[in-house]
Structure formats: structure tokens, C-alpha cells
Amino acid sequence: MDNAGDAYRAFAPAVLGYLRSQRAPDPEDILGEVFLQVARDWRKFRGDDAALRRWVFSIAHNRLLDARRAASRRPSVDSSPLPERPTAETGQKLDPELLAALAALTPDQREVVVLRFVGDLPLEDVARITRRRVGAVKAMQRRALEALERALDSG
Amino acid sequence: MELNEHDPITRRLHALGDQPIDPEVMASHRSLMASVPVAAGRSRLRPLMAGSLLAGSLLGGMGLAAAAPGVPDAASEVAKTVLATVTLGAVDHPDHDKDKDEEAKVAEVDEDEQTPEAKAAAQAAKTAAQAAKAERKAAKAAGQPAGTHGVTRSTVGCPAGFTGNHGQYVSSVAKTPGVTEEQKTAAAQSECGKPVHAPKPAGEDNANKPATAGKSGEEHGEQGKAKSSEDPGTAVNNGQSGQSGADHRGNHPNRRAFDKVAKHGKADAGRSAGHGPTTTTVTE
């Protein structure tokens, strides 16, 4: 990839899916912040595509934590259950059953499974971003998938 | 448990990350990214520049050190003269000499670098300073004998050459072998060594009184008046008699009471100072 615009085209949908799955307060805004930082620090980055993906999701993870911290400081009156934003091109809706099942997971399980499968990151990168050991991430992923299966089967 | 068992779930999860982004949102993000200033990347020239700077400073320092012995003699002489001038100027500066004697100044000059004439001059200055010091001591001793503390004392009845005070005189008489009690009493009652006071002209006390004394009485006038109705004597004695302080500006109330005693006798003074009416005035 030659510039931040290419990175946006390649990773922005996955980052937005990650943010929506994590029930971020305002996913589009956070997505803009993430790629603003990517564009600002683009010339400092050294690495291949895998490293670039890990870097972008690290930024997204940190911006999500910041947004949650900021949201916890101010009172919120928004009690909407799940985001069901239709896309402009296809008119498709997000998978509400899957999002409901993800919401039932613990925050740690949800974070691991979303980074692993929505962000399409390897176990090692998930472990680095979440600052856990690879074995712990693997066990958490297995439990998360089992919980999702149970939730989807029952639903 | 293998991931293959969860393929349907993982596919659905992957699908969450494949949703297209609203073109408006995408356009705004792209314009935002295009507007940010891009941070400068890591320059590979930076270590090279740092190394060049270090090498340059090392080489420069070595060059200066190598060039030092090669300075011409004339330049060395000029530097030496300038430094010597500066050093001597600092020694001769008047601010430095303010609290020093001549001998201290002379001592600061390096003796090794003095010519014989300079050494002789320094010795002469030292001798003169010592002589001046001794002269000052002698003058001090002659003008102010020990025990007098600068007070003029009577010499009436003193033995010849006695310059001490009265106590010293009495003590010296008492210590004299074979002295009688009468002689001791006479010495104690004599004027020898007692301070001599110049006679004061009449009214000098009031004339020399500072203005603040009267002002004090004026300032405390009203308060003193209130007090004087209850205990006028206390008010007068404390210098806070309001009526007298207000009436006699420029004079201390206590002084007024004593003056009154002198002019009108004890009875009047007692009435004015402690038991009399508070509206009495004193005419001078």
C-alpha cells in the first residue's frame, strides 16, 4: 500500500464492523479518528500488510477505549438496543441476531472474537493488541464461539 | 474443538467486517485524511548528522589544543600583559579597599614580581600604616579614658592624675591600707569622679519636648476626657488626659502636672492631677 487512502479502502470496512460489533458509541466518528491518525503517522510506519492491519486495529482498539471512557464520563440517554444501520449501496441490514449474541458475551470474549474474525487478525496479533498471552486468547476465543453457538441456536 | 465446527458463525462474523461504508461518510473521512499534515518520517540522515557533529567537535578541539604551543611570542606577551593589568586593576579597585588597611592592600601584591623600588615603597607604606594605626590607638586612649564612657567627670577632691569615675575612686580609697571609716565616708560623699552636668536654662524641658508628646495628648483627648470623669488621676498619670492634652497642645500632660506642682503647690497639683476638676488650664 502506498498511502493512507489505500489503507482506508482496504481496512475501513473491517474496522467499522469491529466498532459496530463492539457497540461503539459513534462508530463512524471513531472510524474517522482512526484513519486520521493513520494518515498523520503514515510516514512513520514500517512493515508489511499484516503489520499494517495490526497497527490499524491497535489504533481502533485504543480509540474505542477512549470513546468508552469519554462516554462513561457524561450521562447518556440513548438506550437503543443494537445498531441496525442500513448500508446505502445494498440496503442490507447488519446481522441483528449475531449482534445480539455478541452483546451477550463478556466484554473480553467479545473483544477477542471480534478482533479475531471481524478484524481477521491472527491469534498472535489479537494477543498483542489485547495484551494477553496467546493461550489465553485461544481459550477465550473457544469459549466465545461456544457461547455464540448456544445463543444463536436458542434464538 | 476445532474452528471448523463454528464455520457458520465465523463466516457471519467475517461478514460483519465486509459491510460497505456510506459514501458520504467515506468522502468526509477521505477529505479529513487529505487535510492533515503528514508527520515527518524517520530520517536516515539523522544518525549521520549526529555523527558528523560529534566528529567535527572532536576534531576542532584537537586542532585548538595542537595550535596552542604554536602561538607567537608577541601574542603571548600581549595576553600576559592584559591579564596582569586586569588582575592589578581588580586589586586596586576602590570598592575593594573600603574596609581594608594599607597593609592588607600591600600584602595582595605578589612579592616575587616586585622590583626593589616597589618593595621599598611597599615596606614604607606598611610602616606608615602601622604608625597610623598606633597613632589612632593612642589618640583613642588619651581622649577617652577607661571607665569614663565619654562623660565629663568632676576632679574635685580627687588625687592628682585620677581620671576614673566615682565608684572607682571610692573603691580605691577603701582598698588603701590603713584607711579609716571616716575617710571612706568622706570619699563616698565627695564629688570626685561624679559626672558634671551643664546647668540647663529655664524652660528648656518644654522647649525641647518633641511635638509628638502634645500630639499624643491631642489624639487621646476624647478618650482621656471620658476616663477623666471616672478616674482623672489615672488619666493624667498615663498621659491621656483629654482636657489638658487638648488645651495644651505641644506639651505632654505629665509635664503639665509637674509644672503645676511647681507653680501652685501640692494642693493644686493634687486637685488637677487626681482629684480636681478636669477643665483646669495652666498658664505659662
Give a structural overview.
The complex is a heterodimer of chains A (155) and B (284). Chain A is built from 7 helices and no strands. Chain A has helices at 4-21, 27-40, 49-73, 96-104, 107-118, 123-130, 134-154. In chain A, helix 2 (27-40) crosses helix 3 (49-73), helix 4 (96-104) crosses helix 7 (134-154) and helix 6 (123-130) packs across helix 7. Chain A is globular and about 50 Å long. The termini of chain A are far apart. Chain B is an all-alpha fold and 284 residues long. Helices cover 64% and strands 0% of the residues of chain B. Chain B has 15 helices and no strands. In chain B, helix 8 (166-175) packs antiparallel against helix 9 (181-189). In chain B, 15% of the residues are buried. Residues 89-113, 202-262 and 264-284 of chain B have low confidence and may be disordered. Chains A and B meet through helix 1, helix 2, helix 5 and helix 7 of A and helix 1 and helix 2 of B.
- Tally of strands of chain B: 0
Shape of chain A: globular
Beta-strand residue percentage of chain A:
under 5%
Which regions of chain B are unreliable across 5 or more consecutive residues at pLDDT < 50? 89-113, 202-262, 264-284
Total helices of chain B: the number is 15
Major beta sheet summary of chain A: none
What assembly state would you assign to the polypeptide chains in this entry? heterodimer
Distance between the termini of chain B: 125 Å
Helix/strand order of chain A, N-terminal first: HHHHHHH
* Helix fraction of chain A by DSSP (H/I, runs of at least 4): 55-70%
Beta-strand fraction estimate of chain B: under 5%
Helix and strand content put the structural class of chain B at mainly alpha
* Radius of gyration of chain B over all CA atoms, rounded: 49 Å
- Distance linking N and C termini of chain A: 42 Å
- Number of distinct beta strands of chain A: 0
Query: What value does the average pLDDT of chain B take?
Result: 62
Number of helices of chain A: 7
Low-pLDDT sequence parts of chain A = 86-91
